[in-house]
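Q: I'm building a small set of examples for a reading group on sequence design. Run inverse folding on the following structure and report the sequence directly after it, with nothing in between.
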């Protein structure tokens, strides 16, 4: 896009769903084919530009899903009007949230960096499960750091003040993180030791050079 389309506009919709700590809130994606974008029969354009963030809430009793439609334009009002035309809809049914992995631009609407961001706020104590189909849409997710994000799909995750904690991940996934943490700590210690040794060697070499220079001066003045 040219500089004339540098202004951003957006529209926001927020949907809330009941939270029940005794049940699991499932999040899926409505998959399409693997084509990144293509034109439909009616002339509308389908684009895979969906980003999902999962963040921790509080002890609130509701799960909040914020849908943010965005696009660029020559001015903020024009960009905002264009964002309103982005076709995108999630679907909630029996404790399961379905998120399309595409947005649709209506016929004759031009490409203006359209995208949809989704912020899902999970209250403390609520458990969720992310279907593998959602993996490529995840932009950011708050975890407790005990398992890697790439390993959590299909397992039960409970929201805590420290982020999502895996309730039923196999022990090997936790061991993987602990092992990497130990290795990183050892590497960090070794890097610090090597840096201190290099600094000490540099100081000794500087002192030796200084002493040698002093000796040369004394010899030359005799």
């Amino acid at each position: 896009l040219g500089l004339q389309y540098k202004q951003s506009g957006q529209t926001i919709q927020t949907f809330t769903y009941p939270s029940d700590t005794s049940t699991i809130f499932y999040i899926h994606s409505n998959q399409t084919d693997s084509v990144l974008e293509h034109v439909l029969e009616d002339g509308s354009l389908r684009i895979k530009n969906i980003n999902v963030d999962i963040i921790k809430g509080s002890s609130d009793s509701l799960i909040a899903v914020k849908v943010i439609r965005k696009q660029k334009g020559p001015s903020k009002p024009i960009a905002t009007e264009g964002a309103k035309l982005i076709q995108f809809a999630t679907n909630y049914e029996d404790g399961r949230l379905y998120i399309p992995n595409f947005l649709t631009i209506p016929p004759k609407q031009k490409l203006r960096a359209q995208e949809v961001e989704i912020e899902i706020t999970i209250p403390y104590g609520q458990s969720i499960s992310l279907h593998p189909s959602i993996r490529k849409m995840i932009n950011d997710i708050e975890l407790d750091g005990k398992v890697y994000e790439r390993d959590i799909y299909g397992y039960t995750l409970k929201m805590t003040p420290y982020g999502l904690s895996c309730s039923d991940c196999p022990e090997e996934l936790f061991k993987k993180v602990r092992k990497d943490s130990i290795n990183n700590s050892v590497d960090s210690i070794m890097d610090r030791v090597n840096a201190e040794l290099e600094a000490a060697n540099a100081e000794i070499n500087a002192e030796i050079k200084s002493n040698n220079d002093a000796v040369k001066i004394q010899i030359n003045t005799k």
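Helices lie at 76-84, 171-221.
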